[in-house]
Amino acid sequence: MHQVTGAHRPIDIEKSVHDMKLYAFAGLGVFDVADTYGPAEDIYGRFYDEYWGRRPVLGFTKFDPGYGNTGADTRLVVEAIIDRSRNRMRVATLDMVQFHWWDYSDERYCVSVKWLHTLQQEGKIKELGLTNFDTEHMAKIVEDCGIRAVSNQVTYSVIDTRPEKKMIAWCLQHDVKLLAYGTLMGGLLSEKYLGQPEPLRTDPINTPSISKYKYIINAWGGWALFQELLLVLSMIAKKHRISISNVAVRYIADKPAVAAVIVGARLGASQHIASNQAIYSFPGAVKT
Fold it and tell me: Where is the NADP-dependent oxidoreductase domain (predicted)?
């Protein structure tokens, strides 16, 4: 639900709640929100109150004290942020809190995550995860701070394969799962961009996400090489009568240690429910 921050477009809360119900009814009922994603937690709370379907729903939020990590080493600040998330999402216990830290040279992150663990023991949090931690500091959280983290949310795509250098091996050894985002690179990994000229910064289609992932493509090899990749993905997609996006998501979903791929939803603007349901409609790798 990063798309509801407002940086991409104006947000219609009523339509967003309506679309969340459709996703949940279709079995796509796990929503990745954050205390820093604009009204994301409030929208989830509205949805959670109104949802009457039988399929289970989950809301994963984040603990992000903000740059400078002000007061994040005190129970007062940590608990206030967690209680705010609980109130916004209208739940007594948060399904999962994903811990984010801005500056590793500020080693208070161990104190901060221990307060989160205390709140977990007190029943305010069910599971603890991490967000954008590198392997070294993820290891410190688990091994040195003694905190059981069930997951780490990181960018992972057919182009951005950084988790394969060290992180996946460590995660398999310590039973920590990866939640992959950026897998569709803001929508760039789709038929929409096959055979198209390189988007410029001034193009009206440009969003913060596309600008971010376009930078990754430039570092990876450039637009011409990216077009070659899209062509190969398109050939695979046509063979199985699916989309480029389906192939890109399934490629990462089948990777070792990956528990889930987070796909951005433009709530209230467009839906890709049928396409997302097709991700497991074709043969993939044997997961280990």
Answer: 3-280
Please give the structure tokens belonging to residue 15: 């339509």
CATH number, domain at 44? Answer: 3.20.20.100
pLDDT digits (tens, 9 = 90+) for 137-194: 999 999 999 999 999 999 999 999 999 999 999 999 999 999 999 999 989 999 999 9
- The residue assigned the tokens 């999962």 is 96
What is the per-residue DSSP string for the chain? Answer: -GGGGSSSS---HHHHHHHHHHHHHTT--EEE--TTSTTHHHHHHHHHHH---SS--EEEEEE---TT-TTTTSHHHHHHHHHHHHHHHT-SSEEEEEE--S-TTSTTHHHHHHHHHHHHHTTSEEEEEEES--HHHHHIIIIIS-----EEEEE--SS--GGGTTHHHHHHHHT-EEEEESTTGGGTSSGGGTTPPPPPTT-TT--HHHHHHHHHHHHHT-HHHHHHHHHHHHHHHHHHT--HHHHHHHHHHTSTTEEEE-----TTT---HHHHHGGGSS------
In a domain, 167, yes or no: yes
272: in domain: yes
In this predicted structure, what is the pLDDT of residue 280?
84
Q: Is the residue at 253 inside a domain?
A: yes
Q: How far is CA 9 from CA 2, 33, 149, 201, in A?
A: 12, 17, 34, 17
Q: What is the pLDDT of residue 212?
A: 85
List of the chain residues with pLDDT < 70: 6-9, 67-70, 201-208, 268-270, 285-288
Residue 102 within any structural domain of the chain: yes
Number of domains observed in the structure of the chain = 1
Residue 107: domain span: 2-185+244-277
